Amino acid sequence: MSESRPPLPPFSEETALQKVRGAEDAWNTRDPQAVSLGYSVDSRWRNRAEFVNGREEIVAFLTRKWNRELDYRLIKELFAFTDDHIAVRFAYECHDDSGQWYRSYGNENWVFDKNGLMVHRYACINDLPIKESERKYHWPIGRRPDDHAGLSELGL
């Protein structure tokens, strides 16, 4: 039996929005194993200058990421979609072990297989050091509350 991760392509605006929120929710768990299940076993990523291939490397990558990006909180927003492609913009906030806060901005292009698993993820990301007083994401670690502003509402 094949793995499946609804909603499945072809995407409508409604299902593309569901897919984006599902990805945001997964990443906000900061659980590398759980997050990896949204990707095909042979998924290929470009994340900044790093190339990641397959779930095992995805888990290792995310483990490293969240060991250094502390108190991580992410918001994703749908930018565009077609049948099996979704483009998002995102911003996340975190701090390093010295207490320096960052807001990281980026864009991702996603390609899905017929089972709704992501087979390609291309991410471009820029980091901005911020003061703790400049933070905009204050919800408890985990899923962003439904009533919390998104990127557009926050002016990001």
Q: State the shape.
A: globular
Largest sheet: 6 strands, mixed
Taken in chain order, the helices and strands follow as HHEEHEEEE
Average of per-residue pLDDT values = 97
Strand content: 35-45%
Rg over alpha carbons: 15 Å
Distance linking N and C termini: 42 Å
Number of helices: 3
The percent of residues in helical segments reads: 10-25%
Q: How are the strands of the biggest sheet laid out side by side?
A: 2-1-6-5-4-3
Task: Explain the overall architecture.
The chain has 156 residues and is α+β, with helices and mostly antiparallel strands. It has helices at residues 13-29, 32-36, 54-68; strands spanning 39-47, 50-53, 70-81, 85-95, 101-112, 118-130. It has a six-stranded mixed sheet with strand order 2-1-6-5-4-3. The protein is globular.
How is the secondary structure organized here?
Elements (H helix, E strand, L loop, with lengths): L12 H17 L2 H5 L2 E9 L2 E4 H15 L1 E12 L3 E11 L5 E12 L5 E13 L26
Parallel strand pairs: 1-6
Antiparallel strand pairs: 1-2, 3-4, 4-5, 5-6
In short:
Helices cover 24% and strands 39% of the residues.
Record keyword descriptors for this entry.
156 residues; alpha+beta; 6 strands
